[in-house]
Design a protein that fits this description.
By secondary structure, the chain is α+β, with helices and mostly antiparallel strands. Helix content is 35%, strand content 19%. β5 and β6 form a beta hairpin. It is globular, with a radius of gyration of 17 Å. The relative contact order is 0.20.
Length: 231
């Protein structure tokens, strides 16, 4: 089997019926080459404050990643597992998962929530590659996983199926074998910070469009880049 960086097809998953990408489903696959360029995406996550205050207030009353459904109580156990496996958890990931105030700043139009795998999962058929689930769609339509190579974090993978072997068996998926799930998964970001930024800005734009708020300069730039790609 090929190494995951070549095995996984690159694509972004956008959330919510929206004019943003002309998406008419709960989730749509966006070609990697169509994604807007992003700048100023720092691991300190200070860019999470760059949304209009009225939008932030509206989002806090609806749905954010500071959800009552979050299941991340085993974070420190995962940290210990990663150390034993010589895997590097991203600093931005740890900062975000440990801070409810940061989670409160990330809207989700499909009621996603944070949920950690009980264990770090080896990638079937590949040496020294692992996955860790960290976020779920509310209806389990998509799950997002950190992707590691021994000694480093190498991206975020999205899957329509649970990859954990025990949960995969419990779900009783039809017409797919677990080893094929890895082939169908999508590499949607090269870092956790990049993933969080795109998820955050697209969700913020979704709320701005649906609530009738004037887009911020940051949102306008992202929208203009998409408009140019869709012409």
């Amino acid at each position: 089997m090929n190494e995951p960086n070549s095995m996984f097809k690159r694509a972004w998953i956008t959330a919510g019926h929206s004019e943003l990408w002309n998406c008419q489903k709960t989730y749509c696959e966006i070609p990697w080459g169509d994604l807007p360029k992003i700048e100023g995406v720092t691991d300190d996550l200070k860019w999470l404050d760059q949304v209009p205050s009225e939008l932030r207030d509206a989002v806090e009353e609806t749905s954010t990643l500071n959800s009552s459904d979050n299941d991340i109580g085993n974070l420190e156990d995962i940290v210990a597992q990663a150390q034993k496996l010589n895997l590097k958890l991203p600093e931005s990931f740890l900062r975000f998962m440990r801070d409810a105030d940061l989670q409160e700043k990330v809207p989700t139009c499909t009621a996603c929530y944070l949920g950690l795998s009980e264990e770090i999962i080896p990638v079937v058929g590949s040496v020294d590659h692992f996955l860790l689930r960290f976020m779920n769609d509310s209806q389990n339509c998509v799950m997002w996983y950190l992707h590691f190579r021994r000694g480093e974090h190498v991206g975020v993978v999205a899957s329509n199926y649970f990859i954990e072997p025990e949960i995969f068996e419990l779900m009783e998926y039809e017409a797919i074998k677990r080893e094929d799930v890895f082939r169908d998964a999508l590499l949607c970001a090269d870092t956790f910070t990049e993933f969080l930024y795109r998820f955050w800005i697209e969700s913020s734009i979704w709320y701005s469009l649906h609530e009738g708020f004037q887009p911020s300069p940051l949102q306008e730039d992202y929208l203009k880049q998409i408009t140019r790609k869709l012409k």
